Automatic annotation (TrEMBL):
This is NAD-dependent epimerase/dehydratase family protein. One of its GO terms (cellular component) is cytoplasm. It holds the Pfam family Epimerase. GO terms for molecular function: aldehyde dehydrogenase (NAD+) activity. Residues 7-216 form the NAD-dependent epimerase/dehydratase domain. SUPFAM superfamilies: NAD(P)-binding Rossmann-fold domains.
Amino acid sequence: MNTQRMALVIGANGGIGSEACAALRRHGWRVRALARKPPADPADRQVEWIAGDAMNAADVLAAAAGASVIVHAVNPPGYRGWGRLVLPMLDHTLAAARAHGARVVLPGTIYNYGPDAFPRLTERSPQHPPTRKGEIRTEMERRMREAADQGVRALILRCGEFFGPRTGNSWLAQGLVRAGAPVRRVLYPGDYAIGHSWAYLPDVGEVLARLLDREAELEDFASFHFGGYWLDGHGMLDGIRHATGNPHIKAGRFPWWFAELAAPFNETMRELCKMRYLWRTPIRLDDTKLRAFLGGELYTPLDEALRTTLEGIGCLPPVSRPTYAGTC
């Protein structure tokens, strides 16, 4: 009889999903991955790939059979279709978790918050988002809390701006630098003096796996903030300079004027402009609760995280290094 724990990762082709798969495998989980287009030649052949759509309730229900955890890491690409897709996809995950007795894990974001909660965000900070995307995120968490009251256990790990070697859909890869090219200039989206929270995706996956190793100790509705790195624009610029070994990288500013010009014709740019408020004030995630629960080191040194990311997105030549093994 196979008693190995099994986790279903929905959206396993994405940055968060792929790192969750890798981390759970390192921690001894059997991993099943649901994606519309499973890779033809997966890097980890121990992951069980299933073709399916998160918008199809039957696909999710079938994929979740035998799972004790469902990682809901699926998002519409490029901000497109949020109003139509996000909540139905979560509802399908919650229904599958209810049917199979699984805990749902949601990687959370700072979009839930408005200026009344800034600059330091704790698990108890008020959620009054000023954007429709933030309202949807808040509704996702409300539905998870409601489901937890009805017996579906939930875990939210809230993170700042994601970056990592296997995600192209991030501010670092699509805004600050140009993926696939040497870094000559950093286009920071805010005032260089304002701090912001950043989350390195391999660390996010590792922390999720460590939390799930202690699943029995978690509350039915558990929420943790992932502190990651708190950097202002100068700190990020210096980090990229150091990681690349190029002290001459210039400090630039993201062309919001262009995004605003394109917004009426491009949904991605339109949604991007709505989130600009997040770059106009300091935002820091307080990880006191997470540190107290897990202990040990949680975050990869910044220089290593940035170098690995820049290699992964094609800004630096790849260097062979050991597989990520966590920071503890």
